[in-house]
Design a protein that fits this description.
The chain is an alpha/beta fold and 108 residues long. The protein has a single domain, classed as Rossmann fold, CATH 3.40.50. The protein contains 4 helices and 4 strands; from the N terminus they run βαβαβαβα. A 4-stranded parallel beta sheet has the order 2-1-3-4. β1, α1 and β2 form a beta-alpha-beta unit. α2 packs parallel to α3. The protein is globular and about 35 Å long.
Length: 108
Amino acid sequence: MHRLAVIGDIDSVVLFKAVGAHVFPVSSPAEAREALERLSDGEYTVICITEQFGGDLLPIVERYSSRPSPAVVFIPSNKGSEGIGMARLREVVKKAVGADILFAKEGN
């Protein structure tokens, strides 16, 4: 069974319960790191982390990037986006395709 976990501050993650995700409210980068390491044992196919904690977890997320599962995705918090999720997506696509196709401007 494919399962979705969401890690972040309570106000940002509680609504994910409505779509059947398992939510893990945290209030510090240390708690977020602990939750990510605990959840990445194979039980969850996708783990979403609010960008508020994303910067602190990038080294850990890189360890999982070579594995097929879990896919770790950064999402905006209820306070908005910090750009970490889009920057990471841009890096992954650029690595896979060999070019920056997401943000390339026409004529360049």
